[in-house]
Amino acid sequence: MPHPAVSSSPPAPPPAATVPPDARWYRSLFVEAPEPMWCYDRETLRFVDVNDAAVAAYGWSRAELLTMTVLDVRPPDERDAARAAMAAHAAAWRGVASAAYHGTHRHWGKDGRERWVEVRARDVDDPSGRPVRLALLRDVTQARATELARRALEENVRRAQSLALLGRLAGGITHDFNNLLAVVKAGVELAEAALPPGHPAAADLADVREAATRGAALTRQLLSQGRTTLAAPAAHPAPDLVREALRLGRRLLPPNVRLREPRWPAGAPPVLWVDRTRFEQVLLNLVVNARDAMPDGGLLRVSAARARRAAGVGSGRRTRFLRLRVADTGVGMDAATRARAFEPLFTTKGDRGTGLGLSTVAALVEEAGGYVAFDSEPGRGTRVDVFFPEEDAGRAAPPAAAGSPSDVGRVVLLAEDDPALRRLTRRLLERDGHVVHTVSDGRAALARWEALGGAVDVVLADVALPGLDGWGVARALRARGAEQPIALLMGDAGREAGARGDADPAALRVAVYAKPVPPDALRAMVRAARSAVVDRPA
User: Fold this and answer.
1) Close Cβ partners of 430 (under 8 Å, ≥ 6 residues apart)
2) What pLDDT, on a 0 to 100 scale, did the predictor assign at position 479?
3) 289: closest CA among 332, 334, 228?
4) Looking at residue 496, what is its pLDDT?
5) Which CATH number does 405-527 carry?
6) Structural domain boundaries in the chain
């Protein structure tokens, strides 16, 4: 009988326990997937299974999640709408195998933290035939915040471009409009001088002069909101500045907001060396912010007091300041909002805000040598303090009164392209005893200067001259060694100076005045036959 064959190989080990292929795939594709996934019953919306990543992301245990429905991870105020949307989706896709869904929703976890989640889902049947929906989830909170910030930035840029365009359109007509106002004011003064004392027309002329003054102020304010302008600082009594700015500010307030103006102490008023238009922009921005913080009305208080620089605040050598405080009784700011209040483009006003209010205030005040402080609490309103350095009394002294012997007989070179304004300005100055040479463009001004051998006491030039503008005239005269005062008259400083790299009053030693220049200020320019630029303290 034959023997069975004997193998020389070692005996094979017993077969290992095997995992069904479907179970391995399930663990790899679902349970161990790096992104949160879950599966829920399409009829009851109750979770059937959740993976480990979903447990980690949402904070509930697997056992807790399996007692919940998919609606429980939605904020309470969205659950009814979510249930209706799911029902509508189911009705629309009834009878369609493997219907797909893609959307982005707000979810929250066990800790109450809200997040935005992108959901990609597909309708399937589980092995028992139960209709379920398998969903893959991706947290897009940060990506959404980045996208919203990008859109907000684009919208703010678009608004800024619209404002710039509006400013350019306004600036295009401002020069001519200010010339018209100057003609009106000069004509009124000449007419008043020709009237005998007590003439009944004097009151009418005074009304015309006041209307022209108010028109000039409104023009300055519109330009300051629509574009950046070249600063033209001068000495101004603080009460006059505040009074004029608040006169404009009252028009921006609804009837349910009361405005309380500052009370000024007796004696010499504080004097500030500031650009009037930019000062008005600071105060009006603060008035608008306070108004918007009081949608149901309230009290807006503006107060003033002399102050000294606080330690560690601001910069420069100035120590005496005028503190202007704008306080409201509005909604106030929380700590997070206070921390970002001065950030450019940050706003809490939605589509109504540009985010440029407080950041613009801070920039303009710092430019004037001052600084800003503020305080705010939710429900207790906001208080903003702006500190402007006070001007030395000697530097702010008004020019000597007209009529003294040294005030007459000056030789004036006047360059102005508007015929009516040129004619009236000449009449005003000649009436005061000055000799006036007039030209209508920049190159003619240089030619007349040469013809006179430089025997000119003061040059008055419009900036927007044809051929060679006022800046070019000043530059050419300084290059020729001219030391006489030069005053440039501007209708729109931003439009007329913004395109030039040499539009620097200090470098060219010129004085800059905004049109329309009042006749008294025009006389003061001619009387001040000395250096047109005074060194400013830091």
Assistant:
1) 436
2) 92
3) 332
4) 45
5) 3.40.50.2300
6) 24-139, 234-397, 405-527
Instruction: Give the pLDDT of residue 222.
Output: 58
Q: Which residues pair with 137 in a beta bridge?
A: 119
| Alpha carbons 461 and 181: distance in angstroms, whole number | 17
Which residues neighbour 453 within 8 Å (Cβ) at sequence distance 6 or greater?
none
* Closest-CA residue to 153 (of 399, 337, 294, 343): 343
532 neighbors 509 (Cβ within 8 angstroms): yes
Sequence-separated (6 or more) residues with CB below 8 Å from residue 342 = 358, 359, 362, 372
**Does CATH number 3.40.50.410 belong to domain 234-397?**
no
Q: What pLDDT score was predicted for residue 38?
A: 94
Q: Which parts of the chain sit beneath pLDDT 70?
A: 1-26, 95, 97, 163-164, 166-176, 217-232, 310-318, 344-357, 392-408, 491-503, 528-538
Kindly compute the dihedral angle of the four CA atoms of residues 355, 387, 368, 347, in this order, to the nearest 10 degrees: 0
Helix residue ranges, H only, 33-115:
52-58, 62-65, 79-92
Task: Please give the Cα distance from 355 to 283 (Å, whole number).
Answer: 16
Burial call 104-137: b when 16+ CB within 10 Å, e when fewer: ebebbeeeeeebbbebebebeeeeeeeebbbbbb
User: Could you give the angle at the alpha carbon of 52 between the alpha carbons of 51 and 53, nearest 5°?
Assistant: 95
Residue 392: what pLDDT?
63
